[in-house]
Design goal:
The complex is a heterodimer of chains A (283) and B (422). With 283 residues, chain A is mostly helical. Chain A is built from 13 helices and two strands; from the N terminus they run E-E-H-H-H-H-H-H-H-H-H-H-H-H-H. Chain A is globular. Chain B contains ten helices and 19 strands. The chains are: A mainly alpha (283), B alpha/beta (422). Strand 1 of chain A pairs parallel with strand 3 of chain B.
């Protein structure tokens, strides 16, 4: 005795709906079948992000650019922080690229479950699509603001070295960091709305413990591996090194960052999976 | 045997950290309270659905009926995997899609074209499938001229039509549909029903929730009646629908909540039908003969400048008929207000009476009469026209050929001369 719909020729195994068991409830194969939906979500995010703004996508450049100006003025001209021989604008812009990608990605992922509440309660799709699309759609902004970096580097006559080939790895690490923490925060925010108010502070503090405004060379060598537990430290230093050839080459710091990200990401997947199937009742 | 349990009380929509914290701090007090009065707090559970067991054959169109809150939508949400069951299981063989509302995921800033793609993808259509059906969707929705303007500039009617058009072209092997055909204007509703007929004929399996028994009668061969979270009846449409309707009119379905505020000066107590010819059921109209409708009213205050209003509404809250009576003078006590009609030419279905009583500008009582009135009169038209309009009136139609004399009378007017001359 059970509820069965349309027992047809049984060419494919049936879909079984029942209370979930076990702690790894994420269905990765299902996510793959939803890649088109993922694409549409990203496409929508990008389409509506700068709708009805006067300067449109120029915001993607303007935000890190203005921050770079302020940083160069205060930390560069006034505080005279060391930059390993890089001009201040390039030094800061290299760090602000991955940092602003990470910060907006994290905040978008945190809010996405609550923003899409209506969708979640009205139709089924793997919920994982939502935080993933929130994190990935920021890459478009990243690409736009990257163009400004190229202009800066040409202006300051900085030629990238072969280290540039490793840039995709650092970018991947930034994406995974945003996703790993984003999964935790979006799931938590669906249950506890307090999270939404915590995240802006979190992002602010996080920037101070990341080498955005200063260089990691200021951190004593024997503490660097602990400093590297902040994955964004590895990402940002990696960006500077890959783009300009100056600064710290990836070492124990980067290894610690990568390990940290993998742990956070796995934990995030498990936690997200555990709320995924009932989130429509709570969100 | 599917079941869905919800916790009531302490927590409903969402939690904040302080709730957890507060719960912890109050916990010792709770234990004391438990001992004191034996009532458990914050742990009340309800089974929104319990022991629901059924099987659907491929190609079947199943209607699901039941009053509001009976658990129909919960069942659909479980079957469509929006939420998971607390107990039991279901097996679904084949590709499945659900329509719990239309236009899910529409974004006001995107254009009509973009929304078609987005909505289609959310429903579960592939991009190629949407491209293939795109023109059909646009012409069904009748929005071709506005395709590239943002949705926020559409009228609400246009938005509804567009949403429906996408939904109507969604064709999984198994479709779960919640009451979505009940919106839009009448002409468009007919078009949607027609589309549903078409889909039904292609051998798809459909589970269809509706409160409109005429839709259920028209589309479904089998009906499942969910009552208070349990499966009450399961069988052929005519049987189940008529037992449901008679149960509704007896008012015996679970508890009925009356949200009416308690009135102190006057109160309508009950209503009933009286047909000289037939039936014991006082809320069901079964024939087209003379009929009287009575409303019992208790007055605790003298009425010296009273107005009384009555209105008849269709299931969609369309006003069918109304009448007001002024200058009423009534003594306190029990009164009966009676209306008589030579006949009520209404199409079969549920209707609502609404009665009100005023003293000058002060409302004494307003009552949406419960239970609703079920009209079960035989249809007088061709079955195909069963759903056109609201009236079910006896009518004759005759075609007569007229001669030269009548033709001459029309000469010199309209464009007829040209027609006849030709």
């Amino acid at each position: 005795m059970a509820t069965t719909i349309a027992r047809a020729d049984a060419s494919q195994p049936p879909l079984r709906v029942s209370p979930s068991r076990g702690w790894l409830a994420i269905n990765v194969r299902e996510l793959w079948t939803c890649r088109e939906l993922l694409y549409f979500f990203i496409w929508r995010d990008v389409k509506i992000r700068y709708k009805q703004t006067a300067i449109g996508a120029a915001w993607a450049v303007l935000q890190p650019f203005l921050t770079m100006l302020v940083f160069s003025l205060i930390f560069g001209r006034l505080a005279k922080l060391p930059t390993n021989g890089l001009p201040y604008p390039v030094f800061y812009y290299c760090a602000l690229l991955p940092w602003s990608y990470f910060a907006t990605g994290l905040q978008n992922a945190t809010n996405v479950m609550v923003e899409q509440q209506r969708l979640i309660t009205k139709i089924y799709f793997p919920r994982l699509v939502l935080p993933v699309s929130a994190v990935l759609s920021g890459l478009i902004d990243f690409a736009i603001s990257f163009a400004m970096l190229i202009a800066l580097m040409i202006y300051y006559h900085i030629t990238p070295t072969t280290a540039l080939l490793l840039l995709p790895i650092f970018l991947l690490l930034a994406v995974l960091t945003a996703l790993g923490f984003g999964l935790w925060l979006s799931a938590l925010n669906a249950i506890y709305r307090d999270v939404r108010y915590v995240v802006p502070f979190l992002v602010q503090f996080w920037m101070f413990v990341s080498p955005v405004a200063y260089s990691t060379s200021l951190v004593p060598e024997r503490w660097r591996w602990i400093y590297g537990l902040n994955p964004m430290a590895g990402v940002i230093e990696g960006f500077r090194w890959a783009l300009t050839g100056h600064g710290l080459a990836p070492g124990p710091l980067f290894a610690a960052s990568a390990c940290g990200v993998v742990l956070v990401l796995l934990g995030g997947l498990i936690y997200f999976g555990s709320i995924e199937r009932t989130v429509a009742d709570i969100v | 045997m599917l079941g869905k349990r919800y916790r009531l009380g302490q927590r409903q929509r969402y939690l904040a950290f302080r709730d957890r914290l507060g719960g912890f701090l109050r916990a010792p007090m709770h234990i004391l309270e438990h001992k004191a009065n034996g009532i458990s707090h914050g742990l009340r559970e309800i089974w929104a659905l319990l022991d629901v067991t059924f099987e659907v054959q491929p190609g079947e169109i199943i209607g699901m009926i039941g009053r509001n809150g009976a658990g129909k939508t919960t069942l659909l949400k479980i079957l469509s995997r929006i939420t998971e069951p607390s107990a039991g299981w279901a097996e679904i063989w084949g590709s499945m899609g659900s329509l719990l509302e239309v236009g899910t995921g529409f974004h006001p800033e995107l254009t009509g074209r973009e929304n078609i793609y987005l909505n289609g993808a959310i429903l579960g259509m592939g991009r190629r499938e949407i491209v293939r059906k795109f023109d059909e969707i646009v012409s069904f929705a009748e929005v071709a001229d506005f395709l590239d303007s943002p949705l926020k500039h559409y009228s609400s009617g246009m938005q509804t039509r567009l949403a429906f058009a996408v939904a109507a072209h969604f064709e999984p092997e198994i479709l779960l549909v919640d009451e979505v055909l009940a919106v839009g204007d009448l002409a468009f509703q007919k078009k949607c029903l027609g589309k549903m007929d078409e889909v039904a004929r292609t051998g798809r399996t459909i589970v269809f929730v509706s409160h409109q028994m005429n839709q259920i009668r028209r589309l479904c061969s089998r009906v499942i009646w969910i009552d208070a979270g349990r499966l009450r009846m399961d069988g052929k449409t005519p049987e189940i629908v008529s037992s449901y309707e008679s149960a509704m009119s007896r008012g015996d379905i679970g508890e009925r909540y009356e949200t009416r505020e308690s009135q102190t000066k006057a109160r309508f107590l009950r209503w009933q039908l009286e047909c000289p010819s037939e039936t014991a059921n006082p809320y069901c109209l079964g024939s087209l003969g003379e009929v009287a409708i009575h409303f019992d009213l208790y007055l605790s205050e003298k009425l010296y400048r009273g107005h009384h209003g009555i209105a008849l509404f269709s299931a969609n809250r369309e006003l069918i008929w109304g009448r007001a009576t002024d200058g009423l003078r009534l003594q306190p006590g029990l009164h009966r207000i009676s209306y008589t009609f030579p006949y009520l030419p209404l199409r079969p279905g549920p209707y609502f009476w609404q009665v009100s009583l005023w003293q000058e500008h002060e409302l004494f009582d307003l009552w949406d009469c419960l239970p609703e009135m079920i009209v079960a009169t035989p249809n007088l038209q061709h079955p195909r026209d069963e759903w056109s309009g609201v009236l079910n009136v006896p009518s004759e139609v005759r075609f007569t050929q007229l001669g030269e004399v009548e033709c001459a009378a029309h000469r010199g007017r309209t464009g007829l001369d040209r027609l006849i001359g030709a």
